[in-house]
Design brief:
The structure is a homodimer. Chain A is mostly helical. The first copy, chain A, folds into 2 domains: about 80 residues, Arc Repressor Mutant, subunit A (Orthogonal Bundle), CATH 1.10.10.10; about 80 residues. Helices cover about 60% and strands about 5% of the residues of chain A. In chain A, helix 2 crosses helix 3. Chain A is elongated. Chain B binds a DNA duplex through helix 2 and helix 3. Chains A, B: InterPro entries: Tscrpt_reg_PadR_C, Tscrpt_reg_PadR_N, WH-like_DNA-bd_sf, WH_DNA-bd_sf.
Chain lengths: ~180, ~180
DNA sequence: CACTCCATGTAAGTCGTTACATGATTCG
DNA sequence: CGAATCATGTAACGACTTACATGGAGTG
């Protein structure tokens, strides 16, 4: 039930077309809620049907025509309700942790290589977040909105730091079977 | 594509019936890959069809009859292949972070209460993990299997610590609205 | 024998992924 | 005008969720 609310949030921040939304989901919003353009178009259709958003430039129902959406009062209301509703944290579901557990049973030559690869990916992601932080959240600005968005970004940063720490430790612990040396 | 491999791992650790698997997915395995009993029964059917597991006590195809499954060589092989295959980390997808972002747009009276609730839940989960660590991983035992499984548990522990740290900071930062905000 | 719990399963619907289709626009 | 790119959309499938159905076994 999160995708429609992610879209409403994005549209409130800035009215957009489907493709623009897709692009934004590849950047800021997508850093904590990803979605493909097919999901987005389908959901836009549902939200329009439900009277929570509406398309500007309504005249042309043509196929390749750009359609910009904006949020209606009903949509803003629905989003407010969702934000206020308690929701328990989801169970963890991580394929890498699962693979380690499986490796404890069937063995895993080369798993250390995979861990190093993940470590590099997380370091890159962390660097990207830190660059965004430096660009968007200089120390002096402290509007409430900014602080909330900064907190969300800090969440991403902390998560990457968790992975980097855990992977580093895993590799140092020497518990992970090593890959055969390449020639 | 992770669920069948989670089941194979669980069955290799100990042959079980569907309901026993469900229970184990509520405990150890489920700490990093959760699944409902419907998912598990369906997947058990597929795995049996595919010749990767087989049911013991085969005579009775009765409905309420307990069926114990064990992994066949083909299943073990399939699991080994999966463990060795590279797979990129998934994008973050967290409803709480999304709600915070939405709160930056529509406001969120009482969000701090929700954060405190999450904080308590994560502290409880952490305590549970630490109890398991103390019970299952005393300092002296260092078999390779144990170290891998310990690493996985450390992953869970570190993740809970991430949430506790982030939530604590969020509450301390005073960026989270405690009362309705005008727009 | 009614009740409860154990155990397996069906059904329906939503969400997410992958592949592909089609019209509109721009630019050499 | 031909090709690339922009933009929206269809189709199909698999994963996940929720609600419910059915049979078996033990117990008062």
């Amino acid at each position: 039930m999160s995708l429609p609310h992610a879209i409403l949030t994005a549209l409130l921040e800035k009215p957009s077309s489907g493709l623009e939304l897709t692009r934004r989901f590849d950047r800021s919003i997508g850093y904590f809620w990803s979605a493909t353009h097919q999901q987005i178009y389908r959901e836009l259709g549902k939200l329009e049907q439900a009277g929570q958003i509406r398309a500007l430039v309504p005249a042309q129902p043509a196929r390749g025509q750009k359609k910009e959406y904006e949020v209606l009062p009903a949509g803003r209301e629905a989003l407010s309700v969702w934000v206020a509703r308690p929701e328990d944290p989801k169970q963890i579901r991580d394929p890498l942790l699962l693979r380690m557990r499986a490796a404890a049973v069937v063995g895993a030559p080369g798993l250390d290589t995979e861990l190093r690869r993940h470590l590099a990916l997380h370091r890159r992601q962390l660097a990207e977040y830190l660059a965004i932080e430096e660009r968007d959240f200089p120390p002096e600005r402290t509007a409430a909105q900014d602080r909330l968005r900064h907190l969300v970004l800090r969440g991403g940063i902390d998560l990457e730091n968790f992975w980097i720490g855990w992977l580093t430790r895993a590799l140092a612990d020497d518990a992970v079977p090593e890959a055969p040396e390449p020639e």
